């Protein structure tokens, strides 16, 4: 947790233009190597080749667009340019605990975690900005969602997520909608 917190602070100090530049480079690398990445998706999770290529390209587009929107939304307005507005401020404050329960760990799609990079730290992969915590959900789930160092919880839905939300205390929650037909059902409107 301490390593993730210190990495988040360093990331928060990184100028917005530099973060956007890194996102653009990552998107370009992803698209440049779409064939071998798509091949991995085909071999590891039996995704149809056409869908795998499409996912890699869409993921690259999402990374690129996240950078563009990050500059637009997080711009602090010191200069009046089209991507910033004075008085609009978003604070980079949290260590996010990402919960991937009952999903294929080899296919954690970019759309599930890339938005967190605008200002927050994600707890789940390699050393530094992204950290990896491995183990069975019932062993580490409560630890990750109830740890005092976590400022936000992001999850994907289902019964497990309801249990997580009940244990979350006053920690902000972020629901990630996946799939091509995501929707919100409002009582009396269906």
Automatic annotation (TrEMBL):
The keyword Oxidoreductase applies. Transmembrane segments: none annotated. GO terms for molecular function: glyceraldehyde-3-phosphate dehydrogenase (NADP+) (non-phosphorylating) activity. InterPro entries: Ald_DH/histidinol_DH (IPR016161), Ald_DH_N (IPR016162), Aldehyde_DH_dom (IPR015590), ALDH-related_metabolic_enz (IPR051020). It holds the Pfam family Aldedh. It catalyses: D-glyceraldehyde 3-phosphate + NADP(+) + H2O = (2R)-3-phosphoglycerate + NADPH + 2 H(+). Its EC number is 1.2.1.9. Keywords: Oxidoreductase. Belongs to the aldehyde dehydrogenase family. This is NADP-dependent glyceraldehyde-3-phosphate dehydrogenase. It comes from Ricinus communis (Castor bean).
